[in-house]
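User: what does the whole thing look like in 3D?
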Amino acid sequence: MNIFDIIGPVMVGPSSSHTAGACKIGYVSRKLMAQPIVKAEIFLHGSFLLTGKGHGTNLALVAGLLGMKPDDKRIPYSFEQAKKEGMDFSFGEVDLKDVHPNSVLLKLTGEDGRYLEIVGESVGGSVINIASINGQAANFSGDYPTLIIQNRDLPGLVANVTSELAKRTINIATMKLNRSTRGENAVMIIECDHEVWDAAIKWLKELEGVISVTYYSLEN
Amino acid sequence: MSFSTLKEVLEYSEAKKVPFWEAIILDDMRERGVTRGESFETMRGMYQAMRMADEDYEADLRSASGMVGGDGAKLEAFSQKENRLVGDFLTSVMEKAVKMGESNACMKRIVAAPTAGSCGVIPAVLLSYAEKREVSEEKMVEALFVAAGIGEVIATSASISGAEGGCQAEIGSASAMAAGAVTYLEGGDNEAIVHAAALALKNMLGLTCDPVGGLVEVPCIKRNVSGAVNAVISSQMAMAGIRSAIVPDEVIDSMRRIGKLLPSCLRETSQEGLAITPSAQQVTKKLAQKS
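Assistant: Here's the predicted 3D structure for the full assembly of 511 residues, as structure tokens:
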């Protein structure tokens, strides 16, 4: 926390968790898609479902998926904007079990057919957590440039990835490793202090054992 | 964040021979690795966003629930009335606090300070001040650093979240921050600043968070008015030389303990208090039918 979490953020109201946080979940998801979204199925959980409407949670999620940030004055009119931009959206209900009460499941289809399933939690203030991507645990905040590396669970792979980042003087803020079963697919979530260069991402993609690399950048 | 008590801020300020606000900006520069200019300009951006939000008020807007909107315009009209009981400055504070709260409820752009639900308190006091006194924008930005410093200490050692500590943690904190800020503007020294904050927070201890329908509307918006007015009277007490009998950091710790003792039904769950009254139930029933 810093003083601009106390005075700030500048945001469209009424609720930092139900409006600003919801918008940010949408925004980070749009960045992860890395292309315009043509279809968004939005499933609300818990308090998002119960009190979301009065807080504009629906409008904020759609706004975020269109690439609007939490301080964008167009948030109240996001449904009209979605029509203009050709993004189909629908709302449903879901019980996600062990998640924060302010959570949403997003099933997103991109322009070229890319499909992503994202669970996002708004955990307080306007702080969010991307809990999972395509069923794999993720857990990152969207406050740092973030690498999501799907890989085979091979010895030495983590060392290769981190030493490559070190060579390019990219400092790691946090790093998490998740895997479903030993020796099978695993995910590395790396939050960095600086933007990761395209060349580094390209190198990571070509590394043996790496299945896919998704990069969330703070830049527009 | 290196300050977890007001005492630490005061000791640092004294040791470095810098004013309260400068202790806070120095801390921010260290904490985030930014220059003084960057930190100051970010805060200026917050001040300007508050001013814009105040100017952008729209009297015709109503919230999604239909419960709130238009009260700011009523106060504005009433402020023209001669012979009203409340003087010019507090009349302006009241009007701006309601307007900002309503703008927030109606999905306009505001500055969370420290939260969206309490966004009216600090700008109501500071913007009214800027209209009353000849004061530079830089000085107003400095006052925001004072407010931020007090808020950060409260957030670190108690809470600024209604779900954690009830309304005393949101409007109470905002009121303490505004009281310290306006005391700085009035030329109060460090001690007066922290005592103004303590006096303000003491008046808000025990306030529950029981919003109708879980929305940031009732009673939140009008409570911004009481938080803002409370900041002004607390500051005036401090400027008159009145001191809180309870050490300011102990007041903050009391707020923390009281928040912990509040049952969860009175911490933003809308399961008790105003939220379950027959009037509230009527509103929530209508809301459910809408969706």
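In plain terms: The mean pLDDT of chain B is 96. Chain B touches chain A through 52 residues (CB under 8 Å).
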